[in-house]
Amino acid sequence: MAQQADLILHGGEIVTVAESTGSTASSESDARRPEAEAVAVAVAVAVAVAVAVAVKDGTIVFVGPRQEALDQWRGPHTVVRDLEGRALLPGFVDAHGHLGGIGLQATIANLLAAPDGDVTGLDSLKDKLRDWAGSTVGADSEWIVGFGYDDAMLAEGRHPTRDDLDEVSTDRPVLAIHQSFHLGAVNSLGLERLGYSAATPDPEGGVIRRRELAVPPAHGEPDGVLEEKAFTPASDLALAGLPERAQLMLFITGAATAASFGFTTVQEGGTTLANLKALRDTAAAVPFAVDVVAYVKAGEATSSALDDPIGVSDEYVDGVRAAGVKLVLDGSPQGRTAWLTAPYLTPPAGQPEDYCGYPAERDDAVVAKQVSTAVERGWQVLAHVNGDAAIDQFLRAVEAAGPGRRPTVAIHAQTAREDQVEAFARLGIVPSFFSMHTYYWGDWYRGTVLGEERAAAISPARWALDRGLRYTSHHDAPVALPDSIAVLSSQVTRRTRTDGVVLGPEQRVSALEAVRAITLDAAHQYGEQDRKGSIEVGKLADLVILSANPLTVDPEAIRDIEVVETIKAGTTVHPPAPAARASATPATAPTPQWGCC
After folding, report:
1. Contact 177, 145 (CB under 8 A)
2. What is the C-alpha to C-alpha distance for residues 290 and 440, in angstroms, rounded to an integer?
3. What is the average per-residue pLDDT within 180-187?
4. Which of 138, 199, 449, 508 could form a disulfide with 132 if both were Cys (CB 3.0 to 4.6 A apart)?
5. Rounded to whole angstroms, how far apart are CA atoms 256 and 566?
């Protein structure tokens, strides 16, 4: 009985994503043994000497022929499960997202357009906010708040204004958050709470949009739409005004939601030191369904007098580990606040024809200092860089800092030029693309933001692969739902949401390459490839069962695949068993502050 497994899975298409020794190039060949007949998982074997290796929580102990698995690993207590033709893959690894933001997305009003919501115009947006205001959570919230509207998808083709949101309420402040989480709109009372008036100048790195131009020293009456660092105080106030019981559950709800999409490792990407403590307190009180990797805002972490205020570690404690810091160097291309080297095709209202967006931090020395401090302290550096000007700024800082112990990551890199991808390869930077932009905003980029040529090259995964890079792909939830299948589909088809065109067909990747980007290569990004990302003996039994195999279905059918079950370290975490639902609640709540996309 020394080799008795807790679980044997067989009877489906098992995609191991295992690679042959020394191979980093992507291939459709069988060199990586991408398929196997059976997988045996040992979770709690407690017999004989061999137990020391097998007992490690949720370890994979066998990958190979079905009969051999049954002969060598089946015992009287082994659960033998037939996959009945479904596909078994490594659990998905979230290369960049916001765990608390996923919980937030499920808590406040859903202002998303199809297929993730049903907001079509300003009338339906206002209805959603009114409905939420009377809900269990909304009735006790100081602000009426919703997330996910996209001016590119609204019938009116514009942002809601203070006048629109005054129709929702004049008694309570109202905030409608743009899907990018870099912009938002408030009502008149919201502007009053923020102290924004015609006498208020734009903050550095942000814009208060105005009803009309004004003669200095006046700046123009705000129209309610706020960008970047003008928007951040509004989101901080509104989200801090959520009922405490809702705030207490944000991380827990986020983890359960991520697990429902097949993720077994998720990210809290760009938190505060206070929220990091709340995350750890939550995990200690209520075990998460998945592993969580956290990154603290670079400015706060590097300015601390402590050598390591974050507590960076390669090991998880209660399912949480801090890995490093995140910088935000610009805004969002879909919101036209990303920092470009060439002008936007169509500038936002009130901006000149040569408008290129703007940086979050104009001083290169500040950025360089944050990167070099993190590298010196052995922290991993993530940088939000959507526009190519922001990427240039980041490249200068990384080159000056020199190589670090952990991979440096360029988050989003939407408009990376080919020479910048070559610089990623030269400097060892991992590009993590928000590939779903091709679906959600591809048409908006073509017609309004970038034009055909630049739009075709967003999320340039093929350029990365051609240069031997392990790129990753992420969902950046709550900007999009943490939809693993949509992440896969967007990489393989690059088909846009409205017009249904293939955006930059030369940047498409194979289904295996797309799977690697959210499994083994994402594990490499975290430095966890020795324990995650593929189905191999000795690795954690982090697994996902899908309704079909993305490697064998028609590429256009990938989007229809469903996540059937998620297994974390040998235990099913989705769908959750009733007995596994925790009744405890954490003692401290996070202060919601999520800057995304």
Report:
1. yes
2. 27
3. 95
4. 138
5. 10
Q: How far apart are CA 375 and CA 371, in angstroms?
A: 6
Contact 257, 482 (CB under 8 A): yes
**Tens digits of per-residue pLDDT, 424-438?**
999 999 999 999 999
Question: How confident is the model over 110-118, as a mean pLDDT?
Answer: 95
Length of the chain counted residue by residue:
597
286 token code pair: 């209520």
Tokens for 109, please give them: 């009003």
CA-based nearest residue to 32, from 41, 40, 23, 43 = 23
Q: Is 273 exposed, middle or buried (0-12, 13-18, 19+ CB in 10 A)?
A: middle
Q: Tokens representing 570?
A: 């040998």
* CA distance linking residue 192 with residue 202, whole number of Å: 16
Q: What angle do CA 146, 148, 154 make, to 5 degrees?
A: 110
SS3 content of the chain, % helix, strand, coil (to 5): 30, 20, 45
**68 or 424: which leads in pLDDT:** 424
What is the SS3 string spanning 127-153?
A: HHHHHHHCCCCHHHCCCEEEEEECCCC
The set of residues, in sequence order, having a beta carbon less than 8 Å from that of 528 and lying 6+ positions away, is: 93, 265
| pLDDT class of 30 with cuts at 50, 70, 90 | very low
| Contact predicate 176/141, CB 8 Å | no
Q: Which of 365, 177, 362, 381 is nearest to 296 (CA)?
A: 381
- Under DSSP, the state recorded for 469 is -
Element (H, E) at 513: helix 511-517
Count Cβ atoms below 10 Å from residue 336 Cβ, excluding itself.
26
Long-range contacts of 167-174 (CB under 8 A, 24+ apart): 167/126, 168/126, 168/129, 168/130, 168/133, 168/144, 169/130, 169/133, 169/144, 172/133, 172/142, 172/143, 172/144, 173/142, 173/143, 173/144, 173/237, 173/238, 174/129, 174/143, 174/144, 174/145
Contact 278, 240 (CB under 8 A): no
pTM of the entire predicted model: 0.89
Helix (H/G/I), strand (E/B), else coil: 321:
strand
Nearest to 201 by CA among 223, 175, 219, 222: 219
What percent of the chain stands above pLDDT 70? 90
Q: What three-state secondary structure class fits 98?
A: strand
Q: How far apart are CA 395 and CA 577, in angstroms?
A: 47
Cα-to-chain-centroid distance, residue 475 = 4
Task: Dig out the tokens for 375 from the structure.
Answer: 């590298």
All residues at 6 or more sequence positions from 276 whose CB lies less than 8 Å from its CB, including other chains: 268, 294, 296, 310, 322
> For residues 340 and 389, is the Cβ–Cβ distance under 8 A?
yes
As to burial, measured by CB atoms within 10 angstroms (0-12 exposed, 13-18 middle, 19+ buried), residue 405 is exposed
Which residue, 7, 19, 18, is CA-closest to 43? 7
CA angle 258, 27, 415 (to 5 degrees): 60
Determine whether 74 is exposed, middle or buried from the number of CB atoms within 10 Å of its CB (0-12, 13-18, 19+): middle
